[in-house]
Amino acid sequence: MASVASPVVFKEFCPLYYLLNAIPTKVQKGFRSIVVYLTALDTNGDYIAVGSSIGMLYLYCRHLNQMKKYNFEGKCESITFVKLLSCFDDLVAVGTASGRVAVFQLVSSLPGRNKQLRRFDVSGIHKSSITALAWSPNGMKLFSGDDKGKIVYSALDLDQGVCNSSLVLEEPSSIVQLDYNQKVLLVSTLQRTLLFYTEEKSVKQVGTQPRK
């Protein structure tokens, strides 16, 4: 006898005012008042990460009910993508409209975990807006894609504080999504979806017809 499926319960969620109220709606830059727009979002069981149009990353800790702020030095530019990862350490990768990518290794109160905020920069390769970021499960690999079709692989050594980056793939259209698992990078662009095998550096297209 077939089992009866449990009924689907629809639930309404209210806006996260406790989170939104901790983010300013305007900031003062000299004599100008600049409106703050929320431009990127990612969540996991520990954090809610919100990127903004002023280059500020707002990171809300769900366990401590605390909001922290992180930014890029220099020019304030819009954050276009954020990606969280919880592994041995908590990491968040951030991409901007000009192609800057940074990784923040967060502070943890747990024994044996990271006790000092550290930042790693992926610089000099992307020249246009970051549209996708993907972590490996252990936090040692980060893939970043931009709206010109470039995909960059960054190898992170958190113990040594080193980040080495290189261009691994270049597509003729914008990258819209990345996902990585077991040495295979899934890439979606405006024109096609493909599998990039990182060990062999080979490409296999998913499907045969280009997207319209």
From TrEMBL:
<dbReference type="InterPro" id="IPR015943">
    <property type="entry name" value="WD40/YVTN_repeat-like_dom_sf"/>
</dbReference>
<dbReference type="InterPro" id="IPR001680">
    <property type="entry name" value="WD40_rpt"/>
</dbReference>
<protein>
    <submittedName>
        <fullName>TCPR2 protein</fullName>
    </submittedName>
</protein>
<dbReference type="GO" id="GO:0005737">
    <property type="term" value="C:cytoplasm"/>
</dbReference>
<dbReference type="InterPro" id="IPR036322">
    <property type="entry name" value="WD40_repeat_dom_sf"/>
</dbReference>
<dbReference type="GO" id="GO:0032527">
    <property type="term" value="P:protein exit from endoplasmic reticulum"/>
</dbReference>
<dbReference type="Pfam" id="PF00400">
    <property type="entry name" value="WD40"/>
</dbReference>
